[in-house]
Amino acid sequence: MKSGNNILITGAAGQLGIELTAKLREEFGAENVIATDIRESEKIAESGPFEMLDVLDKNHLAEIIRKYKIDTIYHLAAILSAKGEANIKKTWQLNVDGLLNVLELAREGLPGDVRRRSAQSAVSGTESEFETDNDSCSNAGTDSARHSKSDSIFGSNVASTANGRVFWPSSIAVFGPDLPRKNTPQDSPLNPLTVYGITKVAGEQWCAYYHRKFGIDVRSLRFPGLIGYKSEPGGGTTDYAVDMLRSAAKGHKFKCPVGPKTRLPMMYMEDAVQAALDLMVVDPERVRIRTSYNVTAMSFSPEELHKAIRNHVNGFQITYHPDQRDAIAASWPESIDDSPAREDWNWEHRYDLPSMVREVLHKLNSPG
User: Fold this and answer.
1) Any alpha helices (H) in the chain, and if so which ranges?
2) Residue 170 DSSP SS3
3) Of 196, 210, 229, 351, which one is the catalytic site residue?
4) The CATH number of the domain where 173 resides is what?
5) pTM of the prediction?
6) What is the largest CA-CA distance in the chain?
7) pLDDT tens sequence across 346-364
C-alpha cells in the first residue's frame, strides 16, 4: 500500500481492530484511516475519523466508502467462536453476509482506487480507463466487466479491475477433528464443528471466488489464538489466555475454562498486526493462496502458560473448570504448518511464549 491510501476498518473496536487501527494510523496518517464499529469507541474516535456502522447495512457501508473515497478495506467485524454457538443465525448473518457486502462493494469498485488509477494514468500520459466526475466513474471496458448503474454506489459502471484491496481474517476454527492435530498442513480438509468455523470456511471460499471471478484483490490469514492487552477478550475460545494473563497481573486466582493439557496455536497481537500489514503490501503475484494463509507463532497449553506466568508472578494460582470451550479447542489443531506464508511473502514472527508473557505482563502492570 502507498501513503495515499484511504483505509476503512470494520470491527475497529474489537481486540484485533483496536491494535490494527492504531498501527495503520501510525503508518499512513490518522486522517487516512477511517475506523468503524457497531459500538462507540471514544479512544478510537479521539485518534482519528470514526463512524458508527453495522456492516449488514450495505447502503450505509457504501455511503462511508464513497464519503472517504476508500480504496483499502480491513474487514474485521465478526462474532467469535464461543459467542457464536449461543446465536447461530446472527453469527452466520454477520460473519458471512457482512463479508459479502464488502466484497460486492469492492466488485463495484472502490472510489479511492479508481481515482488513484486515473491520476496515475494522467501522470504517465496514457489514456485512463476511467473518467471521474463528482465520484462517478464510467467503465469503458467490455460488457462482461460492467455492472448496472443501479448496482454501483458511484452512479455508473465500474470495471472489476478497479476494486482496491481487501483484508479479511480467517481462523484455525476452519479445521475439524478429522486431521492431524500436529503441524496441520495448509491444504487440510476443512470440516469445522462450530458455526464460527463454518462461517470462516464459507468466507474463505467467497474470497477465493471473488478473486477468481471478479479480480478482487482480497487477502486473508488464518489466525491462531490472538493475545493482546489493550482490550477485553471478545468471546473467542482461545481468549482464556488473555483472561489468565489479566488475572495474574491483578493478583487474582484464575478459573480456566480449558483443560490443562489442551494445546493450541497462538500469536501475540503485535505479530498478528504485522502479519496483516506484511501480506497487504506484497505484490499480488506473490499472494499464491486466495482462500487464507496459515500463520502461527507458538503453541502452548494452559498448563504451560501458567508455568510461564509464574516465572514473573510468584504464587499465581489456577484451577481448571473445562466447559464448552474445551470441547471446541479439542477439535482444533495443536500446531499448524505456515511454511507457505513464510515462503510466499517472508512471514516471520517475533514473539515466542516467554517473550510474549513478559511483554504482556509488563504492559498490564505499567501505569496508564
Assistant:
1) 15-28, 42-47, 58-67, 81-84, 88-92, 98-108, 111-124, 195-214, 240-250, 269-281, 302-310, 324-330, 339-345, 353-365
2) strand
3) 196
4) 3.40.50.720
5) 0.86
6) 70
7) 999 999 999 999 999 999 9
69: left (phi over 0), alpha (psi -120 to 50) or beta: left
Domain for residue 367, yes or no? Answer: no
- State pLDDT tens for residues 163-198: 689 999 999 999 999 999 999 999 999 999 999 999
- The 10s digit of each residue's pLDDT in 108-167 is 988 876 545 554 444 444 333 323 333 333 333 333 333 333 333 333 233 333 468 999
Element at 332 (helix H, strand E): none
Residues whose CB falls within 8 Å of the CB of residue 186, separated by 6 or more in sequence, listed in order = 289, 293, 294, 337, 338, 339, 340
Asked if the structure places residue 326 within a domain, the reply is: no
| β-strand pairing of 264-268 with 298-300 | antiparallel
Determine the pLDDT at residue 366.
86
Q: Indicate the pairing of strand 293-294 with strand 254-256.
A: unpaired
Q: pLDDT of 38-81, one tens digit each?
A: 999 888 999 999 999 999 999 999 999 999 999 999 999 999 88
Domain residue limits at 149: 7-225+269-297+335-350
Residue type present at position 304:
E
Residue 324 in any domain: the answer is no
DSSP 175-226: --SSS-SSSB-TT-----SSHHHHHHHHHHHHHHHHHHHH--EEEEEEE-EE
Which tens digits make up the pLDDT trace of 291-325?
Answer: 999 999 999 999 999 999 999 999 999 999 999 99
Does residue 357 lie in a domain region? no
- The residue with cell 464519503 is 67
Residues 6+ apart with CB under 8 A from 321: 255, 256, 257
First to last CA, the chain: 32
| pLDDT given for residue 82 in this prediction | 84
Active site residue 196: yes
Dihedral in degrees, nearest 10, Cα atoms 303, 309, 310, 311: 120
Query: How many domains is the chain partitioned into structurally?
Result: 1
Distance, CA of 156 to CA of 148 (rounded, Å): 7
